[in-house]
Amino acid sequence: xxxSSKRPLKKQFVETLELxxxxxxxxxxxxVTGREEVIVENYxxxxxxxxxxIRLQTKNCKLFLSGKNLKIVYYTNDEMKITxxxxxxxxxx
Length: 93
Prior knowledge:
Elements: H1 9-17, H2 21-25, E1 29-33, E2 37-41, E3 43-49, E4 53-58, E5 62-75, E6 79-92
Antiparallel strand pairs: 1-2, 2-6, 3-4, 4-5, 5-6
């Protein structure tokens, strides 16, 4: 048997058809503009929110952002915009 037969069927389907991974797996998408703006898509909830740190739950992990004067400018069910001085982005299990 080849290597491809050991991959999950959904993953094979997405790769074969070259479909967007975020759409099928619910992967978090992070768009960073400089050190002052972050757009996070596909998050599930806000776990912690202070001016120095924001911790979000995603489908597959927790996302930790740290910095100074962090502010959630807006959020919807699947997207949020964070501004401030971003120092670090960390993925946590």
